Amino acid sequence: MSSAMFQRLIHPAHQRRSAKTVEVFGWILLAESPLLLFAPHFVATVLQLPGLSEQAANYFRLVGLLVGGLGMLYVVSGRLDAEGFVFASLLDRPLVPFIMAALWYFDIVPGPLALLFALSDGASFLWTLSAWRAEHRSG
Hints:
mainly alpha
């Protein structure tokens, strides 16, 4: 990794508002990740899910690892003002509420968990879209 890139990561020189929304979403994912990794039973209780078997808790931990990886990707891309990543997130995140609704409907994912992901991705998508549109209106 070049030292210039690392310096941009630590001290972003210029960061558009839409990139900042992506970074904040990444920090939210990074905050959720350790909870899923280290306290899956607590998360299940908060989401009012049935008690987790050890296998289910381990799947929660796996999801926590994946969520953490995505969080890191969002934070780094936002801090580096990666316009392509911001745009890609505008294509991906609006699909999440619909996918979660389908997973809930087919009884694959419990309602509270589907709602949490749908609201989180849906709200962050609208925030990023608003910032993106404002940036492109003003030139």
